[in-house]
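User: Second chain of the day. Same drill as before.
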Amino acid sequence: MQQCENYDKPVSFFYNHSGKHITSVWSSRDYVVLGLGVTVCLIVILSNILVIAAITINRKFHFPIYYLLGNLAAADLFAGVSYVNLLFHTGPYTIGLTQHEWFIRGALVDMSLTASVANLLAVAVERHQTIFTMQLHSTMTNRRVVLLILGLWVVAIFMGLVPSMGWHCVCDLDTCSTTVPLYQRSFLVFWAVLNLLMFSIMVAMYARIFLYVRRRCRSRPTPDADQLNYETVINLMKTVVIVLGAFVICWTPGLVILLLDGLGCKVCQVLQYEKFCLALAECNSLVNPIIYSYRDEDMRKTFKQILCFVCRSDSDQQGEPSTIEFKKRDSRSSRRHLFSSSSA
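Assistant: Same format as last time:
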């Protein structure tokens, strides 16, 4: 971190300078935020562990799309953990943080959220490739999938470390933001615009997929093909609406707040909404498993088998251990396209 006369100043100095005052007294609102936040984070962690376990155990999910979904679950799991860390290092706890600890706290949140969004984009790219090449699964090799996943995490880690590597306002107080007092306003603008750009790319991809599938439905004359394509269009439309709707609801308010703060809006009262927007953005990590995994019939059945196995293990601790037995299904069913899976 660049050293200057403000290098040894406490975190509270920057908060007071930006107008985001913190106190050492816990209010009832702080306790409510902490309680609700921890509850949501626990659900996020457990649900994403379930997704990762299902993909690991069931060999039917050993395809690129499910590897990406597993990585998305890992990113959301990390988001839940990082947000728990944030909850226990916020409010009155913020006063006791050093600048180094404060940057670590922010880096964890930035990494997790960036990884989640990047994984959503990777899933969109994979679906775009498979549908336009008329394949049930991507032809990507395991090596390429691993490299892609590693690349996503490299980007997420880099984005998390950028502020601590110099894009901060420790030595230039006039550039400090209000919602994130040690970050420069220009970084908030960059981060918000980058995520909005990724969102726009996803919208364009899913819109193109939808138009392509609908056009193929109209051009295929056979009844079986028409019926299959019609079901694909309906399921695809539902998935696109849910994906885009959840993303817009969870991310847009926070990105707008960061953008307004970065642009130096003085009348926007960003501090009144920033905690709510951060919690709403974090809820996207809870919605992702539902959208991308729970809508898959095979995935839902695997979840039930895992949960039943856990229940049987608890009840049979003094007897013989239970095992999970996955029934073999028809190969055609096992290769069912993600977007053609039955809806919840």
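Residues 12-340 form a domain with the Rhopdopsin 7-helix transmembrane proteins fold (CATH 1.20.1070.10).

User: Great, on to the next one.
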